[in-house]
Amino acid sequence: xxxxxxxxxxxxxxxxxxxxxxxxxxxxxxxxxxxxxxxxxxxxxxxxxxxxxxxxxxxxxxxxxxxxxxxxxxxxxxxxxxxxxxxxxxxxxxxxxxxxxxxxxxxxxxxxxxxxxxxxxxxxxxxxxxxxxxxxxxxxxxxxxxxxxxxxxxxxxxxxxxxxxxxxxxxxxxxxxxxxxxxxxxxxxxxxxxxxxxxxxxxxxxxxxxxxxxxxxxxxxxxxxxxxxxxxxxxxxxxxxxxxxxxxxxxxxxxxxxxxxxx
Length: 263
Fold this sequence. Notes:
With 263 residues, this protein is an alpha/beta fold. The chain has helices spanning 4-7, 17-24, 32-44, 47-69, 88-95, 108-117, 136-143, 167-179, 197-207, 219-224, and strands spanning 74-78, 100-105, 125-130, 154-158, 186-192, 230-231, 237-238, 255-261.
């Protein structure tokens, strides 16, 4: 149930990336306007559906790797999106029931559904922040109410940095967030990339819809977010290829990802 303050912030006249993505992964938390632009983009570039699905699977593999192999017990997930299956806390707490997760978003529908659906194990903690990527220090300060920022954190920024129009500003936001986390913390990023004409056309159609624009970047630009960090094997690769036992759907999906460790 949405309270009046959240309801007043919802704009159903324009598509929204969280609802649009929710439609692509088979969710039900979207509006007609989101489905309309989703269907339009599918007609332009059907491969974007595979990008959505494989990006979600990458999230699961990355969180499991950090929890199982690196012993990470704290996660800060910025740009959460609408909950579906295998959210960050569900994956982490299956490995480590005492894991602590903080979700960050500033979309009212995301916040409403997060509070309703993103629960926690009794041993762990899940918290939700109405906060903004553009104020990293405020995000870290608020997250410190749940996470111990003297211990390693898995910082998740998935399919979110494309909303930051200026690449150098996006890099600076990532740098400031990682600066507030200790050695042993990990950065996990995925974003759609300008690696095919279809993806570029889909991005242009989405940006022309009135939604908050999402800019696809080069693979080299995705790699640039990890400057100063130690890349975890296999480095910056397609989301369908990162630690996948077999190629996940179409290995040529137009989205790249990586995991980097702060030394």
